[in-house]
Amino acid sequence: SRTAVVIPAAGRGVRLGPGAPKALRALNGTPMLIHAVRAMAASRAVSLVVVVAPPDGAAEVKSLLADHALPERTDFVVVPGGETRQESVKLGLDALPEGIRVVLVHDAARPLVPVDTVDGVIEAVREGAPAVVPALPLADTVKQVEPGDPKQPGAPEPVVATPERARLRAVQTPQGFDRDTLVRAHATVTDNVTDDASMVEQLGLQVVVVPGHEEAFKVTRPLDLVLAEAVLARRRA
Ligand code: CTP
Ligand code: MG
């Protein structure tokens, strides 16, 4: 059975600051998206990668993929994305051919995930889990607060609770799914969610966590670009 990856790459990258869409920004000279595509295609299990491009950037993404060396055993498809990450993932799922049983969803904004993490997720889905997420324990203690007035940023916010840190995990991608389960989740769940596995939780199915990796961090703010380029430089050394 074949495994496909959907890569949502349609976001603008507002938190990264002005410039090209985040996925097209360079890390040590190569677009973040190309790093992410290579990270997925590095897994021998992956036979298809669907890239969800910025809505007006599908042609540009197609030529980027053509211009960079990628493994020959992998097929690549590009589709335009939507307004939200959730919509973009759904548009990617709509492009999957028959015969795909396992689907990974991987943020273009996590360009440096090691192949062992990818393979670990795929293996757990193949062993029968309907949804698998890589995750790490937290370094910071987390507080739940009563959010303040958005018009008064920086005003003190009352703390509501402190969840036990040892039981919390920070979730990464690629998240892995039984294909039919993820398609059903996207057809059923309409709430705003920040990851795909939570949609499967809402179907009442058991999601499991496997070990993530520090290098699977999400490039979100300018400091993350500094870290990503340092990781790449260390790999080449
Ligand atoms: N994404 C997408 N379609 C959207 C929004 C986000 O495909 N409409 C993708 C991003 O390209 C990214 C991933 O979802 O690879 C994770 O989202 P995030 O890190 O939030 O990226 P952006 O939404 O681009 O960044 P920001 O929230 O700072 O604007
Ligand atoms: Mg976003």
UniProtKB/TrEMBL annotation:
Gene behind the chain = ispD
Record site feature (Transition state stabilizer), residues: R15, K22
| HAMAP family documented for this protein | IspD (MF_00108)
Q: What is the name listed in the Swiss-Prot or TrEMBL entry for this protein? A: 2-C-methyl-D-erythritol 4-phosphate cytidylyltransferase
Q: Where is this site: Positions MEP for the nucleophilic attack?
A: R165, K218
List UniProt keywords, sorted A-Z: Isoprene biosynthesis, Nucleotidyltransferase, Transferase
Q: Which family does it belong to?
A: Belongs to the IspD/TarI cytidylyltransferase family. IspD subfamily.
Q: What does this protein do, in the record's words?
A: Catalyzes the formation of 4-diphosphocytidyl-2-C-methyl-D-erythritol from CTP and 2-C-methyl-D-erythritol 4-phosphate (MEP).
What are the leading ranks of the lineage?
Bacteria, Bacillati, Actinomycetota, Actinomycetes, Kitasatosporales
According to UniProt, the reaction catalysed is: 2-C-methyl-D-erythritol 4-phosphate + CTP + H(+) = 4-CDP-2-C-methyl-D-erythritol + diphosphate
This protein's pathway reads: Isoprenoid biosynthesis; isopentenyl diphosphate biosynthesis via DXP pathway; isopentenyl diphosphate from 1-deoxy-D-xylulose 5-phosphate: step 2/6
- Short name of one Pfam family: IspD
Q: What is its EC number?
A: 2.7.7.60
Write one Gene Ontology MF term. nucleotidyltransferase activity
Recorded hits in CDD domains, A to Z, give:
CDP-ME_synthetase
What residue stretch is flagged as signal peptide? Answer: none
Q: Which InterPro entries match?
A: IspD, IspD/TarI, IspD/TarI_cytidylyltransf_bact, ISPD_synthase_CS, Nucleotide-diphossugar_trans
